[in-house]
Amino acid sequence: KNQVEQSPQSLIILEGKNCTLQCNYTVSPFSNLRWYKQDTGRGPVSLTIMTFSENTKSNGRYTATLDADTKQSSLHITASQLSDSASYICVVSAQQAGTALIFGKGTTLSVSS
Amino acid sequence: DGGITQSPKYLFRKEGQNVTLSCEQNLNHDAMYWYRQDPGQGLRLIYYSQIVNDFQKGDIAEGYSVSREKKESFPLTVTSAQKNPTAFYLCASSKLAGGKETQYFGPGTRLLVL
């Protein structure tokens, strides 16, 4: 069964600190992996997208890594800001007809001052 | 939210009532999607449309209906058959259908039952 598991479920960090969010998947055949940021009460916004051959992708203070062999991805946030408080969703796409997107449940990050 | 609008932001439904959620996009995207988001769960696909006048059921289509008469619009009707409609509904679009395309999401509509 195609699944995407994220950890931790929630995380609280102090402003200025770094953090890493994890995503493990069992989707096959794999096409790509995306990280989305979702502010409370808003729609998700795409942060990064990685295909099978890409190991890392950066978007400002956000850096995503992908290990296709172990089927793991991480999202590293550097020098966190209060505006980083949001839910971060890992989404894996399978190579098949239709939409073929499998969504993780998300990690809720709270950045405090 | 880039070019996708959803209305209303909040919607209240009475027992036995059908309600319609609006989704409009000006991105010239062919594909549009409706998702349901419940607390502590991942997004679940309700319906999607790859082209005008065509749509397919997603994982949880029961109790919902859609239409795609125009490229820009993909309204979702929550019927009285949907017994647990309270949720956050997200509309999305992509240039083409398929997992390689990035989906862009609207701001969402929160549906509450009175």
Shape of chain B: globular
H/E topology pattern of chain A: EEEEEEEEEEE
Strand content of chain B: over 45%
Q: What oligomeric arrangement do these chains adopt?
A: heterodimer
Q: SS-based structural class of chain A?
A: mainly beta
Unreliable parts of chain B: none
Number of DSSP strands of chain B?
11
**N-C termini distance of chain A:** 41 Å
Helix content of chain B: under 10%
Write down the secondary-structure element order of chain B.
Answer: EEEEEEEEEEE
Mean pLDDT of chain A: 93
**Form type of chain A:** globular
Could you tell me the radius of gyration of chain A in angstroms? 14 Å
Measure the end-to-end span of chain B. 28 Å
Percent helix of chain A: under 10%
Counted beta strands of chain A: 11
Largest β-sheet summary of chain A: 6 strands, mixed
Q: Summarize model confidence as the mean pLDDT of chain B.
A: 93
Low-confidence stretches of chain A: none
Q: Largest interface, per-chain counts?
A: A-B, 26 and 29 residues
Largest β-sheet summary of chain B: 7 strands, mixed
Structure in words:
The complex is a heterodimer of chains A (113) and B (114). Helix content of chain A is 0%, strand content 58%. Chain A has 113 residues and is an all-beta fold. In chain A, strands 2, 4, 5, 9, 10 and 11 form a 6-stranded mixed sheet that branches. The mean pLDDT of chain A is 93. Chain B contains no helices and 11 strands. Chain B has strands spanning 4-7, 10-13, 19-25, 31-37, 44-51, 54-57, 64-66, 76-78, 87-94, 104-105, 109-113. In chain B, strands 2, 4, 5, 6, 9, 10 and 11 form a 7-stranded mixed sheet that branches. Chain B is globular, with a radius of gyration of 13 Å. The termini of chain B are far apart. The A-B interface holds A 4, 31-32, 34, 41-46, 49, 89, 93-106 and B 1, 4, 6, 31, 33, 40-45, 48, 56, 58, 88, 90, 92, 97-100, 102-108, 110.
